[in-house]
Amino acid sequence: MMRCGAVVLGVGVVLYGLVSVLRPSVKREELTFAEVDEGAIEVSVGASGKVVPAFEEIILSPINTRIVQVYSRSGDLVEEGTPLLKLDLQSTETAYRKMLDEEQMRRCQLEQLRIDNQTFLSDLEMKVKICAMNLDRMEVELRNERYLDSLGSGTTDRVRQAELAYDTGKLELEQLRQMYENGQQVKKADLKVKELEFRIFQKELAEMKRTLEDAEIRSPRKAVLTFINNQVGAQILQGEQVAVISDLSHFKVECEIADGYGDRVAVGSRTVVMTGRQRLTGVVSNLTPQSKNGIIAFTVQLDKDNDACLRSGLRVDVHVMNALKEQVVRLHNAPYYTGAGEYDLFVLEGKDRLVRRRVRLGESSFERVEVIEGLHAGDEVVISNMTDFKGKKTINIK
Question: pTM of the predicted model, to two decimals?
Answer without folding.
Answer: 0.55
